[in-house]
Structures are given as structure tokens and as C-alpha cells.
Amino acid sequence: MTSPQDFLGFWETTGSAKTFTHPLDPELLKAYLPRDARVLDYGCGYGRLTAELAGLGYHRVRGVDVSAALIARGRREHPGLELMRWAGFPLPFEDGFFDAALLFAVLTCVPRDADQSAIVGELGRLVRPGGVLYLSDVPVQDDALNRERYARFAGRYGTYGVFETPDGGVFRHHPPQRLRALLRAAGFGVVAERTGSVATPDGRTAERLQIIARREGSPEAGARREPGPASG
């Protein structure tokens, strides 16, 4: 999980103890992410999916999160993983450094438009042309609980779909077209979508939207060199 600086306190305290539940889809992984791909798990939290990818044979995976508490937890629970705390942009990697990126239940933790655009835009910089972004997030829900809290907090945050939880978290559910537009603006083209139900950390269920998007541009251009970490 990740969030902008204004909301980071939750993820350094209460949020850092949560058990995240958004699952990978093995069929999508197999279809779009080769085992030798260099993968960024952005908003990795405590490395749950980073570890799952490593267990599936993806050995070039790096997790990054803004929360020091979540990264510390991840290093305790998964000492063999490459997990890094980094707040702000740019991340310390060259353009096109990664073949693929994961963005799992991250935008739901980022209520502001500008912060969301910054995240997806940075992934557009880091994923090579022809590489993929595997996004999974929560669209606007149609049940009574969510409709009520969307309406209750719309005035405070100026966006329908943003809401607070009793333990102090601020979250956002999105119209699907909002997620697609963010990807297009960052240079990605949607190539596959899937919907389904997932468990939430608070014990409920929610509908989710999974999107595979490909970084536009010539794959040959992104493959001419073996990228290395950015200097400085």
C-alpha cells in the first residue's frame, strides 16, 4: 500500500498492522509476465505480493513503498526480498528499468487526483516500451454501505468515491473509466481486463477490476541496452 504524504500517518501506525488481501491472478501473470521479467511491485506494503512473485519463480522483483513501518515489517517477515522505502518521485531507477510493474490496491489508498497521476506517470517512465503494468483496484461499489459513505464524505474530499474508515484510513473507489484514463495519460494501452470479488482487510467483500496495460512505444527501443540503477 501507498498514500500521499498527508495520509501517510495511518500507514505508519494502524495501517501497518493490517493483513492485505488483494490476490494475484495466476492466469494473468502467466499470460503477460515472463519469469525472467524485471518487476517493480510499487506500493508493496509489507512485501506480501513481492514474496508471492518470488515463490512463483520471479526472481527479479523489487518492492517499493512510502511507509517506513510497512517496509520494516516486510523485512522482518520476508528477509530475503529486495524491499525499499522511498517517499516521493522520481524513484532511483533509470527510464525503462523494469519490464513490468504491479500496482495492487494502491490507488484506493490515494484519494487525490494529482497524487494518483504522479504514481501512474512514474510507472510510465520506469516500464520499458512494450512492458506491462498489472493494475488491480476497487471500482465504485453499488452496495448500500458504500453508497452511503461515498455521499457522506463527498463534500469533505470533493470526489464521489472517497471515504474514511473508523480506524482513521482514507480510501478511494474509482469509476473504471478513471483508471483507464490514468493509464492512457501515462502512455499505457489497455490490453485485458477482468472483474471479480475479493476479500477486504476489514472482513467484507468488494468487486475489483484487474487491468493489464502495455507501455506504448517500440519494444526494440526499450531493449537496446541493459538498464542499470540511476546514478546519484
TrEMBL record:
This is Class I SAM-dependent methyltransferase. Pfam families: Methyltransf_23 (PF13489). SUPFAM superfamilies: S-adenosyl-L-methionine-dependent methyltransferases. Its EC number is 2.1.-.-. Keywords: Methyltransferase, Transferase. GO terms for molecular function: methyltransferase activity. The keyword Methyltransferase applies. The keyword rRNA processing does not apply. PANTHER family: METHYLTRANSFERASE, SLR1071 PROTEIN. Residues 213-232 are annotated as: Disordered. It comes from Streptomyces sirii.
